[in-house]
Amino acid sequence: MKIRTATIDDLEMIAAVEAECFPAAEAATKEEFAKRLQHYSDHFWLMFEGEKLIAFVDGFVTDEADLTDEMYEKAELHNEHGAWQMIFGVNTIPACRRHGYAGELICRAIQDAKKQGRKGLVLTCKDRLVPYYAKFGFVNEGVSDSAHGNVVWNQMRLIL
Ligand SMILES: CC(C)(COP(=O)(O)OP(=O)(O)OC[C@H]1O[C@@H](n2cnc3c(N)ncnc32)[C@H](O)[C@@H]1OP(=O)(O)O)[C@@H](O)C(=O)NCCC(=O)NCCS
């Protein structure tokens, strides 16, 4: 499997994978991804099987320690010199799940954040995924302020 960062040319594929992975209320739209790619395409980690995008991880960098709903929409808040690599999305298409692909992308994001001298990574997730992210070293900080998609989210942090 090939892993690389993104360019604006990947927009269609990224939006299609997102729509396959999340209910409409939680999925980022194509317009949102266009803004994200414009501001932080180097903070997308894409996995390809041949030419096909099968999984990706994305999120911007900020000095804010906690992940807020505003961050999902306001790509312009990305700060390339910030302390924390946020993780907004972790997606693998249904046909390719349980092969460790999301795990590989998470490890790559951790590796890059380390190389870039970040303090760590922050994500939010539903209860059922807390043990999954804990395997990579993320620690659950409890319920986050996020009301994204009307779901209860836990904030988890990995300190490098
Ligand atoms: C959550 C999600 C990203 C996981 O993607 P994935 O590529 O299947 O992830 P992995 O393969 O790394 O891990 C998934 C499970 O498969 C297991 N697994 C990994 N490699 C495996 C293998 N070779 N054989 C069998 N199981 C394996 C992992 O241990 C993990 O098990 P666990 O859930 O019991 O911890 C994917 O299910 C998804 O896109 N879901 C919808 C969107 C979503 O909820 N995203 C998370 C938002 S916080």
Automatic annotation (TrEMBL):
Domain of life: Bacteria
InterPro entries: Acyl_CoA_acyltransferase, GNAT_dom, SNAT-like
Record-annotated N-acetyltransferase domain positions: 1-159
Coiled-coil spans in chain: none
PANTHER family given in the database record: SEROTONIN N-ACETYLTRANSFERASE
This protein's name: GNAT family N-acetyltransferase
Keyword tags: Acyltransferase, Transferase
